Amino acid sequence: MFTFTNRIQFMSSLHWMMIYGLYYIQFTVYVIVMLCQLPPKKVRNTMSSSNLRDLQRELENKANDLSKLQKEIAKNHQMRKKYTLQLGENELVLKELDLLKDDTNVYKLIGPVLVKQDLAEANANVRKRIEYISAELKRLDATVQDLEEKQNSKKDAILKLQQRIQSLQAGKGKA
Amino acid sequence: MQQGGGSETEVTWEDQQNINKFGRLNNRFHELEDEIKIAKETNDNLEDASNELILTDEEVIRFQIGEVFAHVPKDEVENRIEQIKEVTSQKLAKLEEEKESILAQMAELKKILYAKFNDSINLEED
Hints:
The structure holds two protein chains of two kinds.
Chain A: H1 4-37, H2 41-99, E1 106-110, E2 113-117, H3 119-174
Helix pairs in contact in A: 2-3
Chain B: H1 13-55, E1 60-65, E2 68-73, H2 74-117
Antiparallel strand pairs in B: 1-2
Helix pairs in contact in B: 1-2
């Protein structure tokens, strides 16, 4: 025979079992409904593979964009190198011109002919050229910096895409 | 050149010859472009030199022959420059002609190869 307290304990445990049971049934029904809403396994596989294909295509496009950017950067570096050399040469010429006296003969090579030129004019021309080259170098530096930033962001995007593809492939492997 | 994603097509010996020929023509086309650029620059320099000669009041000009500068009378320098200009212009015309011929041949080969391979072949440059 149960004592009064035991009966209360028994009733309360029965009560909780019923509540938990109801929750369990509800949860099971919910899971079944969710599973019914999912497409068949075959369809799911094709969905993930088409998803994967899209991602791979996107990755290919991004890689192409990156290689274009890298070519552009290389081209800019080449131009920068050329301008730097020219700047050095012109600065050397300017130093030499500064050493000359006012009555010195200065010649300029045009085609196969050495033509006499005024010292002041030669000086002005060289200074103008130096100004122009310096401005071009500044512009090129800014362009290269901008391109390198774009390149870095592209690299990050590619890395993220690769990770997504890997995770998708891993999921596919498990399935 | 990147490859297309088309279907498999059999590549015959003749196709291979056409592809090789296209490659050779393309290389020559780029060489010609560089040569034309140099010829044009030379022509411009000669034009500038003859203009400077008109303006100068010197009777004896320092004229470059190979690695050295020789003192040559102004009239003779003018004649020499005109001769060089003529030769350069003729060379430039020849180069332009060859370039046109190469472009025509390349267009013909493109037509043949694209007709057979569709998007399995890419003959365009980046």
